[in-house]
Amino acid sequence: MRVSEILRSKSNRLVLISSDASLKDASTLILNERVGMVLVNDDQGEIAGTLSERNLICFIAQKGVDAIRETVRSAMSNIGLTAAPADSVTDVMRLMTEKRSRHLPVFDAGKLVGVISIGDILKSRMAEKDQEAAVPRDIARFSLAAAA
Length: 148
Fold this sequence. Notes:
With 148 residues, this protein is an alpha+beta fold.
């Protein structure tokens, strides 16, 4: 299975926030959109990084409760790990596990085409395993029906 197959099964809507927005606004956006991470735009509208729930918690733990007034830029992460639509889901899952990354932006020819989460990967792997298990089950049912 490829990353492109996961992207096809998801909404292609991306949740974005300006790097100049407050962490309060970012936390409200994350809550309202029911996502674990938002993409951060810079002044030119380019993707500058990501801001996850973990980024927020760690930043507030280090800086105190007043940190919520700081800008997204102060707590965001640079985009380090990425995936491509043609990447193997197994390889991406291994990379995300090794690097302890819950979300991964997907770029195709330098253009952001989506974001996948470890939850998306687990869901796709479970569906794949269910399909694999269905084949012998169907063969057994057919064999039993034919024998009767």
